[in-house]
Amino acid sequence: MLTSIIGFLSGILGGMGVGGGMLLIPAATMFLNLSQHKAQSLNLFCFIPSAICAVFVHIKNKNILFKTALPIIITGVPFALLGAYISTNLSSRFMGRLFGIFILIFGIKEIYVGFKGNNQP
Q: Residue 121: is its pLDDT beyond 60?
């Protein structure tokens, strides 16, 4: 039951573009006792079908700027492969700390933008 609730909430967040991994990865490590590597792998595996569904909806609503997306995709894919290779050589503890720092920085940025009253990054 808990895994279904985690999947439901992370799917909703992922479909909204917020990033379901922000919920899925900490929940998987805390409540499902997965290692950081397994939690991040689970997130990526679950992300694929969610992302495909979200992409179709956003294409239909004309929300994607293809001229902007293409260079990001072209450079992002090789660096994603590099990041995956590097992460396999890091300990789960270190990966967890890096992810925690990332979430903290992202949260501080969002709070700053919220107080500034500007919804644009």
A: no
